[in-house]
């Protein structure tokens, strides 16, 4: 038995153990015991993934009674990488869960489904054939659905969120199933190596491409299949949201990688254009919604749509450029997409854990009622701040390195040796750069808002005022996550090399380590060494700090309740800017896209037209995709249901006549 | 050897710009004062302001956090980084840290974010208002900025600024090509917006409701304010220096020599001060645009930048 096989078996055994623990342990100790076993399960995933990434081989074969090829689990390097990423998030989420899971989220069902969810996610990248892929995909989906059920008894909104989630995840499962079925029919087998024999230029392959793109895009929360995200993630406890938004979306990306890198690496150029368009629209729409959201978890949920959009943008660029024979830039775009996926896993899980900590401490997710948490929860604030920098792609976090690499790939993509490669590329690349730039700018605003309003300034409510730092067991995953965001940003060289080996052996991105763990993408002449960069900034800081300390010794700071305050406006914390007012200029600028509904109600004093007693302003931004695309479809279905009700009035006579007519029709059809 | 020379050039640039930035602001204010018929406070007043602020006790609000102290320092360091990385006196690239335009834009954004957080930290209405507007403008400028970078990178085949400047030096026809002209106009508008100049923001306003930059620094005082002011001035000086070296690259040192350093320092000083005078004269004739007209201006500059990139495929 090889190490890889041991790792796969180990995960299965730990799942059994986790299920037993969830069912058998008493309520008081359940979170501690089950959480620990889930952590171990995820840790086993990290080890297995690392073995697969470093080239370990081995396979686990599951015999079935079905007339299919046997199910074989054998992660390749790419699968190993993805397994490592999702398991790392799993470790953080499980550790956090030990401390944070209470009452409903610490129930038997909750911990059992957490283990099942983690197990499913970790083994999807190990699948080598369609059937086992879909099997673990469904295990993952069912696990997460049951996990979300935990709070249905206490909050009415959970049920409706869950219906959306189930419907959307089954829709994307259907797309994936149909897409793979088409490919399998064409190839005459279900193994991925068999599927690779399909001609990517046949129409069936293109139809399968469309279906798979929709299916995987749905799991990766892309527009227009993202509608479940802003409903479901705010209802989930922090650690569950972290696991879903930090890890599960990566499975969607993995599916896309599997199809566009492993199975059909040489697709036509229009595939790339379509993926880029889908990614670009998702990125813009996601960040626009995130920037105007006031609920911290809704904000983070929409930001996931944005980040996944960017990942798909990179992926699409790589498909398009490969079709145009701009191989160096195509490889760089692929590496950038994977770097983005990695960094997103780190910062988004930390952000959601931070939101979970805030929810526990202040019992409030509405940014308009938070504030001043920085001094009350310094650990959470620091971790959230570092992760927010990653999400805003500021140097030198992992998010920055990934976005830099993507931009470099794009500007080098439209020309090879000074020759324009294709019209499609020379239109798509500038537009992609513009989309990324606007996305990055809005992401900056979004996360300045999220951090600044929640953690700086003064508390805007009593709950925020009384918030206290979370216990140590919850701080550990927060700090670990924040460290990951920064360390991944400082080590782009080794990371890029690892990613390069993961997408091989067919593709060989020309990247190497340079300087102090910096990255050198030789194909596109791009060099970045974040560590040297930090050292330079540190050097520049020295003289500033010397002046600062000299000045501070002679002229100490004075604390005053009213230093300037523009006419005493500091007197009441209510007069501060809130998240809603912070985003107000943006709502106006993007009025046509967001279509906010505003309601201003003025109460006058007595009969006076001029004296106002009270002004009540209400503004809400709804999801345009939901109201414009899904509502009409749902209404249509409802009308159909009403019509169908007329046919089904409960009369036994009517049903008997239906079956008689049906029988007649069958007989006539058969006799024809 | 080039590594040592590059580090020396970076040091020269830092010292020169720390000296030059307040002087540039002084010149801009003095020219404006004279054009408006006022006596003005002299070109050394910004220097005296900084010295004065450093020997004052900073006053901080009760609920403000460490951000009010750390934010200004961060802004200053990000501006210093700009001065060290941009090809202002010479184009010798630092080892391992090329003057990549995307990196430079990100360094600038660190300062933008630090300033916005300082504005929020004090917990007043004006600070939040300034911060919100500042970030909205910053978000909308970003596409113009990066597309202009893209357009500039096409003739040189790289986004490394020192190479872009060298290409322009070797082949001056690039400078007056339509692609480059469009990109320069777009870049100039983006820089005006980034550095809070007219018509996006009025740097000399005393009316809080129209403030962008000033509203964020209202609560800062003493050395905090000194860092914020110096940081913003350095950013303006460095970006004007970049703009002038892109338009008129002559005088920039490409190979290490003592004479080259002196010439480089002299020419960049003259270029920046001249550009400062032009800016100041231009600002006399401009009024601040309404906040919600700013997106239109930025959309216009974005269109120019996009045109520049697409034109490069059609023309070249």
Give a structural overview.
- The complex is a heterodimer of chains A (672) and B (316).
- Chain A has 672 residues and is mainly alpha-helical.
- Chain A has 26 helices and ten strands.
- Among the domains of chain A are: 155-529, no CATH class; 624-671.
- In chain A, helix 3 runs parallel beside helix 13, helix 13 packs antiparallel against helix 15 and helix 15 (378-391) runs antiparallel to helix 17.
- The longest helix of chain A has 36 residues, at 327-362.
- With 316 residues, chain B is mainly alpha-helical.
- Chain B has one domain (2-315).
- Helix content of chain B is 70%, strand content 1%.
- Chain B contains eleven helices and one strand.
- Chain B has helices at residues 2-35, 45-54, 67-85, 101-121, 125-156, 161-170, 178-194, 213-216, 222-247, 258-284, 294-315, and one strand spanning 59-61.
- In chain B, helix 1 (2-35) crosses helix 9 and helix 1 (2-35) runs parallel beside helix 10 (258-284).
- The longest helix of chain B is centred in the N-terminal third of the chain and has 34 residues, at 2-35.
- The model of chain B has no long low-confidence stretch (mean pLDDT 87).
- Strand 8 (558-560) of chain A pairs parallel with strand 1 (59-61) of chain B, so a sheet runs across the interface.
């Amino acid at each position: 038995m090889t190490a890889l096989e041991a790792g796969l078996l180990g995960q299965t055994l730990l799942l059994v153990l986790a299920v037993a623990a969830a069912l058998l342990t008493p309520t008081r100790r359940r979170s501690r015991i089950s959480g620990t076993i889930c952590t171990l399960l995820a840790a086993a995933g990290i080890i297995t993934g690392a073995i697969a990434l470093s080239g370990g081989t081995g396979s686990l074969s599951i015999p079935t009674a079905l007339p299919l090829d046997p199910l074989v689990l054998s992660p390749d390097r790419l699968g190993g990488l993805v397994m490592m990423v999702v398991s790392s998030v799993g470790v953080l989420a499980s550790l956090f869960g030990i401390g944070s899971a209470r009452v409903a989220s610490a129930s038997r069902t909750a911990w059992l489904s957490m283990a099942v969810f983690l197990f499913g996610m970790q083994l999807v990248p190990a699948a080598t054939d369609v059937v086992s892929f879909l099997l673990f995909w469904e295990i993952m989906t069912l696990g997460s659905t049951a996990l979300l059920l935990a709070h249905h008894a206490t909050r009415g909104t959970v049920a409706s969120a869950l219906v959306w989630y189930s419907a959307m995840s089954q829709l994307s499962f259907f797309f994936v199933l149909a897409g793979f079925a088409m490919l399998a029919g064409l190839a005459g087998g279900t193994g991925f190596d068999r599927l690779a024999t399909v001609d990517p230029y046949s129409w069936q392959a293109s139809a399968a491409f469309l279906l798979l793109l929709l299916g995987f895009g749905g799991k990766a929360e892309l527009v227009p299949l993202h509608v479940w995200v802003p409903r479901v993630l705010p209802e989930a406890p922090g650690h569950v949201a972290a696991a879903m938004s930090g890890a599960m979306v990566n499975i969607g990306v993995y599916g896309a990688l599997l199809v566009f890198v492993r199975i059909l690496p040489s697709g036509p150029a229009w595939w790339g254009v379509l993926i880029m368009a889908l990614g670009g629209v998702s990125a813009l729409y996601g960040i626009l919604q995130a920037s105007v959201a006031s609920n911290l978890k809704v904000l983070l949920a929409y930001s996931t749509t944005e980040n996944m959009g960017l990942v798909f943008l990179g992926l699409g660029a790589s498909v398009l450029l490969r079709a145009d024979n701009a191989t160096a830039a195509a490889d760089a775009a692929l590496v950038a997409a994977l770097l983005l996926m990695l960094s997103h896993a780190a910062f988004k899980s930390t952000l959601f854990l931070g939101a979970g900590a805030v929810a526990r401490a202040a019992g409030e997710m509405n940014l308009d009622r938070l504030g001043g948490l920085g001094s009350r929860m310094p650990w959470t604030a620091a971790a959230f701040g570092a992760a927010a920098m990653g999400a805003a792609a500021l140097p030198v976090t992992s998010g920055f390195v990934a976005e830099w690499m993507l931009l470099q790939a794009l500007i080098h993509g439209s020309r090879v040796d000074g020759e324009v490669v294709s019209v499609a590329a020379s239109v798509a690349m500038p537009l992609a750069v513009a989309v990324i730039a606007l996305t990055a700018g809005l992401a900056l605003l979004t996360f300045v808002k999220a951090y600044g309003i929640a953690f700086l300034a003064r508390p805007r409510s009593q709950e925020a005022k009384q918030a206290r730092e979370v216990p140590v067991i919850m701080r550990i995953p927060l700090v670990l996550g924040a460290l990951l965001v920064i360390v991944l940003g400082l080590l782009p060289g080794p990371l890029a090399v690892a990613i390069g080996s993961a997408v091989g052996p067919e593709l060989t991105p020309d990247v190497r380590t340079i300087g102090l763990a910096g990255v050198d993408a030789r194909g596109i002449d791009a060099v970045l060494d974040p560590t040297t960069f930090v050292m330079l900034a540190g050097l520049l800081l020295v003289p500033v700090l010397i002046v600062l300390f000299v000045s501070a010794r002679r002229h100490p700071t004075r604390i005053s309740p009213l230093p300037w305050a523009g006419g005493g406006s500091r007197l009441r914390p209510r007069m501060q800017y809130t998240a809603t007012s912070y985003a107000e200029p943006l709502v106006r600028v993007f009025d046509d896209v967001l279509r906010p509904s505003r309601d201003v109600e003025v109460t006058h004093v007595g009969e006076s037209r001029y004296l106002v007693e009270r002004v009540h302003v209400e503004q809400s931004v709804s999801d345009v995709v939901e109201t414009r695309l899904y509502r009409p479809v749902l209404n249509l279905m409802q009308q159909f249901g009403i019509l169908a009700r007329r046919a089904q009035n409960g009369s036994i006579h009517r049903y008997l006549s239906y079956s008689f007519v049906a029988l007649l029709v069958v007989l006539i059809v058969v006799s024809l | 050897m080039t590594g040592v020379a590059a580090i020396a050039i970076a040091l020269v640039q830092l010292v020169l710009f720390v000296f030059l930035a307040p002087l540039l602001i002084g010149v801009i204010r003095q020219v404006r004062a004279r054009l408006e018929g006022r006596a003005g406070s002299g070109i050394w007043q910004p220097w005296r302001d900084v010295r004065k602020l450093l020997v004052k006790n900073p006053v901080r609000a009760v609920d403000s956090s460490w951000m009010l102290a750390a934010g200004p320092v961060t802004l200053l360091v990000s501006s210093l980084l700009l001065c060290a990385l941009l090809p202002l006196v010479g184009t010798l690239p630092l080892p391992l840290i090329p003057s990549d335009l995307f990196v430079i834009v990100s360094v600038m954004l660190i300062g933008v974010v630090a300033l916005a957080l300082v504005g929020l930290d004090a917990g007043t209405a004006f600070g939040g208002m300034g911060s919100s507007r500042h970030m909205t403008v910053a978000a909308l400028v970003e596409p113009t900025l990066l597309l202009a970078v893209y357009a500039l990178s096409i003739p040189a085949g790289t986004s490394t600024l020192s190479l872009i400047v060298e290409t322009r030096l070797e082949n001056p026809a690039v400078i007056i090509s339509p692609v480059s002209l469009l990109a320069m106009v777009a870049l100039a508008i983006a820089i005006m917006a980034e550095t809070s100049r007219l018509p996006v923001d009025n740097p000399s306003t005393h009316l809080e409701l129209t403030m962008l930059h000033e509203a964020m620094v209202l609560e800062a005082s003493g050395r905090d304010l000194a860092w914020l002011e110096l940081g913003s001035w350095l950013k303006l000086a460095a970006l004007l220096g970049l703009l002038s070296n892109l338009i008129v690259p002559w005088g920039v040192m490409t190979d290490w020599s003592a004479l080259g350093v002196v010439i480089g320092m002299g020419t960049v000083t003259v270029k920046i001060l001249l550009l400062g005078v032009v800016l100041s004269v231009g600002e006399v004739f401009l009024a601040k645009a309404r906040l919600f007209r700013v997106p239109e201006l930025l959309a216009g500059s974005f269109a120019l930048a996009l045109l520049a990139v697409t034109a490069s495929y059609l023309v070249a």
